[in-house]
Specification:
Strand content: 15-25%
Order of helices and strands: HHEEHHHEEEHHEHEEHEHEHHEEH
Strand order of the largest sheet: 2-1-5-4-3
Radius of gyration: 27 Å
CATH class of the largest domain: Alpha Beta
Structural class: alpha+beta
Bound molecules: adenosine-5'-diphosphate, magnesium ion
Oligomer: single chain
Largest sheet: 5 strands, antiparallel
Shape: elongated
CATH superfamily of the largest domain: Histidine kinase-like ATPase, C-terminal domain
Helix content: 40-55%
CATH topology of the largest domain: Heat Shock Protein 90
Low-confidence stretches: 1-10, 295-300, 379-399
Distance between the termini: 64 Å
Length: about 400
């Protein structure tokens, strides 16, 4: 492009009526993150959305400093910005993952050209796609479930009976042998292994069984109390202290009591297994009436807010690699795990049109957050219709 053509097209695109403030306001008001540097790498623009996504304070203290000072030396955005003046083709609608937060970012990088067609800076437009990714992952999980569900259920049914046979016959043999016989320990091993295999089969059947939700107005404090009782009945670890901070006056939610309880029992069991000894798990619940992120994700309609339940443990936490896979069926890091506890949790959460998030706590340990939608009491029927649709999707082809 010739100099005069570039200059005239620049003039053509901007009305002389608006002053410089307008352009400033335009950038600040954008719903995308905007980060711009000049030719020397000095940060010259960082709008509020950019600061929010990057966890920077929303003031101008970052401006005028080199982007590596502001973002840190090995920041993923730093690598993108550093390529702005070197690459012939700049990334367009690309994605990257920010560490350690794990946020998925969609971005486009542009060079800022002056009227003489010379680069004077670079600008990064970006958006937090984490929520979109989660929804896509949910879709993929549903598809996978539909495909493996029927087969897995059939195999599990077939395996259950011979397994019970092995347990019973090994028990009989054990009783026939004298207590002192060396083979007693072999038989104990057989019985132990069969029990583990049986637990996997039971979990598997639970996982593939279509959920038949019994929707009612459920009291969250009651569900959480029941979940703690059930967990305590199932675990032998007396070293783990479970603390609850659950106000009694939380609004009721349109859910299935038993299914909801299963979510929290599974989370508690995992927390206690992660602790593997003395430690603490806290369950806290609160009513939330507005949240920018959720409103932005289009979740704000038809709700009277959300009940948010946090389950936190002070165990070892998990690496980003593990965190990405925990909801996948059969993913486990335990020698005797079934890898189905959280897959079942995810299935129930999806069926309730709820949401689950997980993060590693700064102070160590894991934090699961379950968000339940509170609807007006009168909306119970329409709520259950949309849940039935979700269920149809989850249970598709699952026998
Ligand atoms: N509270 C927790 N702390 C650390 N890791 C966890 C926690 N909860 C789940 N995990 C990880 O997620 C994996 C999957 O959990 P789950 O689906 O319940 O299967 P399983 O408990 O049979 O391994 C676990 O093996 C573990 O690595
Ligand atoms: Mg588990």
């Amino acid at each position: 492009m010739s100099v005069s053509a570039a200059a005239s097209s620049t003039l053509n695109q901007f009305s002389p009526e608006v002053d410089e403030h307008f352009y400033r306001d335009l950038v600040v008001s954008m719903r995308n993150g905007v980060l711009a540097i000049d030719r020397n790498g000095t940060l010259v623009v960082a709008n509020d959305v950019a600061c929010r996504i990057l966890g920077l304070a929303s003031d101008d203290q970052h401006l005028g400093r080199h982007y590596t000072d502001v973002l840190g030396p090995r920041h993923e955005f730093g690598q993108v910005l550093s390529s702005a003046f070197a690459l012939s083709h700049l990334p367009n609608r690309s994605e990257l993952r920010l560490r350690p937060s794990g946020k998925v970012i969609g971005f486009t990088l542009s060079r800022v050209m002056n009227q003489f067609d010379a680069p004077t800076g670079a600008v990064l437009f970006f958006k937090d796609l984490t929520r979109v990714e989660q929804l896509e992952e949910r879709e993929r999980l549903r598809d996978r479930l539909a495909a493996i569900g029927e087969m897995a259920a059939a195999i599990a049914h077939e395996v259950k009976n011979p397994l019970a046979g092995i347990q019973v016959m090994a028990g009989l043999l054990k009783r026939r042998l004298p207590e002192t016989d060396d083979d007693q320990s072999v038989l104990n091993d057989i019985i132990g292994e069969a029990r583990v295999a049986n637990k996997i089969v039971v979990d598997l059947l639970e996982f593939v069984r279509p959920i038949n939700l019994q929707i009612e107005r459920v009291s969250v404090p009651d569900v959480l109390r029941d979940a703690v009782d059930k967990y305590e009945g199932q675990t032998s670890s007396g070293d783990v202290i479970v603390k609850t901070a659950v106000p009694e006056d939380l609004p009721s939610v349109p859910e299935d009591h038993t299914q909801l309880r299963q979510i929290f029992t599974n989370l508690l069991i995992n927390a206690s297994e992660a602790l593997d000894g003395p430690g603490q798990v806290t369950i806290a619940a609160r009513h939330m009436t507005s949240d920018d992120d959720m409103a932005a994700a289009g979740d704000a309609q038809d709700t009277c807010g959300w009940v948010v339940i946090d389950v936190e443990d002070d165990g070892p936490g998990m690496s980003l690699d593990v965190r990405e896979k925990i909801f996948s069926p059969f993913f486990t890091t335990k020698p005797r795990g079934s890898g189905l506890g959280l897959a079942i949790v995810r299935k129930i959460v999806d069926a309730h049109d709820a949401r689950i998030d997980v993060r590693t706590r700064h102070e160590g340990g894991t934090h699961f957050q379950v968000t339940l939608r509170v609807t007006p009491e009168l909306d119970a029927t329409s709520a259950s219709t949309s849940m039935q649709e979700t269920l149809d999707a989850v249970g598709r082809g699952v026998g």
